[in-house]
Write a structure and sequence with these properties.
homotetramer; 214 residues; Tetracycline Repressor, domain 2; 71% helix; DNA-binding
Chain lengths: 214, 214, 214, 214
DNA sequence: TATGAATGAGACTTCATTCAT
DNA sequence: CATGAATGAAGTCTCATTCAT
């Protein structure tokens, strides 16, 4: 997989030329506002080639999402692994994620806000990426807090998903819409929230029975 | 404002007939897959009338979203107000929100996953609703935890936004996709997460200075 | 019948207000380019009133044509009657006709070129007017040339019709399109042509038998 | 230019398929009563193709007129050229014209009565055809009568135009409306009228000075 | 009668997609 | 593979006409 986010040569193979052209046009003027003709003209390939590699206009978007999300996740995981202090892994990952979103704000906007509702295939790709992100969060935070194993795995997974939603929502509001620059502070805050959430979960893990409340 | 979610008579005025028809078709076969022709045929009004009330196909979606989101928020706030025990208000609101999403799963799907990316106007409506939801969370949780006033308002707002994202992400994965039925448990979990997040925030409010980490 | 061409007060009765408004708008921007709304707004009456007096937008045009063509024919006949010299009657009529077309060029354009093809009713009105004009020509010229009665009435009628076409064609090309001003010269020419045609007809009335030629 | 009037295969290229379909529909139920949808359905092409070849519904009519009028004029000129007797050329042309109008009465109706008033472009095409027809008349008749060159060219042109109007008017009344069959007699009559008109013109060419009358 | 909402038809346009050369 | 013609679906808009108040 050739990087769409971090490499900036021009691609040789038509498929990547198309993905690159699509990335620029979709982030520039939006997916719906971009016609297939514009994509193939920018990529300097023919419509025949386009339909050889992609089943439809939306398929291009799906593959583009797949590439981008994979890249982002890989980069986040790589960064966390580089962090030697075990208590800082989740922070490092979250921070890197915010950084990428901040550095490629149009791409983040495309992935997070201007994307859904286009096809179930796109939703599925996003869904899978969220699941993987949640797994990363789950695994990073788990090693940071003392877990007595009393919290069910299912609850922890749900909490991890919730944190993914929390992070993305903050990215949308703070980074994309409000254009906040202090990534470190946001990452710190989100990491705190995550740790707080998991900690609270561990402490109160037995307080819920059936319809009872805390 | 006439309720689109909870009333089920047939409307008299063409605007509501169109909104109702759109709700059914968009939740049934999707926004993009529904043509204006189908909407006006189901609503039994003319295309001219459609374009009299709505500037475009997307404008109909925007107004539909506005109505639905207002309704949901109002219902959530109303339910929280009915809860007399002050420590249970946030739980009551979250629980009601999950309940509505569960009872109207196609609508929830429309609002949460199959909607964005259609126009900036839709995004804006969703954004505003999220902000209002965050305010509700913020106000509900604030009265439940002992706040020494040491946490900045901005941080609490961000945390509230994060919680909105957390809740919606869980709704998408657990209620919409996985079709989980135990609303109470999910609400309990999410409420815990929220309280945990806010508590951790209060405890560590001073631990972050510049680029430092927890 | 109130004159639309030569009177210039504002009308009291809605029907004439509508006809007058239509005349101005149709000659100004064309029949097809004028909407019913514009007509009723200019006439300061309601759509209800419009459809009380006229069955349709085209019906208004038909009645307008009827009025205008009647007026023009009446004026042409009146002028010919005022001419005492019997040999000048046809010239006087033709001259007056050209004069009216020249003085009201937009109206002439409407009647002669921008009108047909709209409905069979319009065509019929025009057809009748042409027939009446032909009768005038026929009667005027008949008294001017010595007729031995050898020419069939049918032939003379046809020749008269031909002269109507000849006159109108010249009006279109010379007065409307080329904007020629020397009405007298044109009238003289056309009158000559008419007399020449009828004379030739009389001289050669027996030369045609079956498929033979002159 | 492929003949629309005299050929009767089905066309290959969409443009001619559309022109042919339009010819049938416009002559059958009228231009205004025919929708673009009907035209493309009859021609078995798509609306996109329609708007690729024609700018508008009216543009199709304009191009159709152009083709038809060119065809008719060409046929008339060709017939006159085949006539060896120089004194019969104008008769031959006029006769052929009447014959075509008689053989294709719906087309003649379309061209002569149900056409104008639709757009200035249509009027222009008709105007040009009339001018060309007038030139044909002028040239044909000029060689038949002894011209001393005393009549101004402008007058002869005007007379020729008048004859075009005369012929068309007779076609409308006698052939199209009254459905007369004796083409030969009508042609003979019209030719006589034309010759009479031109002769009279030549005889009296100096009798008009300024505002004087014959 | 006036007003204005509503209708229904149809013109025009853009595009994703297909197909022949 | 490239080119470009053609398709068909659907969005948008304008109007003549009708109807209720």
């Amino acid at each position: 997989m050739i990087s769409l986010l971090f490499h900036h040569q021009s691609y040789k193979d038509p498929q990547n030329k198309l993905l690159d052209a699509a990335l620029h046009l979709y982030t520039g003027k939006g997916f719906r506002e971009t016609s297939v003709l514009e994509v193939v003209e920018r990529a300097r390939v023919s419509k025949t080639t386009f339909y050889h590699f992609f089943n439809s206009k939306e398929d291009l978007l799906v593959q583009l999402f797949q590439s981008l999300l994979e890249e982002v996740l890989q980069e986040v995981r790589r960064t966390a692994e580089l962090e030697t202090h075990i208590a800082h892994k989740s922070f490092a990952g979250i921070r890197r994620y915010l950084e990428i979103c901040n550095d490629h704000r149009p791409v983040a906007r495309l992935l997070l806000v201007s994307s859904a509702g286009l096809s179930s295939a796109v939703e599925e790709v996003r869904h899978k990426a969220h699941v993987e992100f949640a797994i990363f969060i789950y695994e990073s935070v788990r090693v940071e807090i003392e877990q007595e194993g009393l919290v069910s795995d299912d609850q922890i997974h749900t909490a991890a998903q919730a944190m993914v939603g929390a992070i993305n929502e903050v990215v949308i509001h703070k980074i994309i819409v409000e254009n906040k620059k202090n990534i470190d502070e946001l990452a710190h805050l989100l990491n705190h929230i995550a740790i707080g959430a998991f900690t609270m979960l561990a402490e109160n893990q037995m307080s819920f029975k059936g319809g009872m409340r805390l």
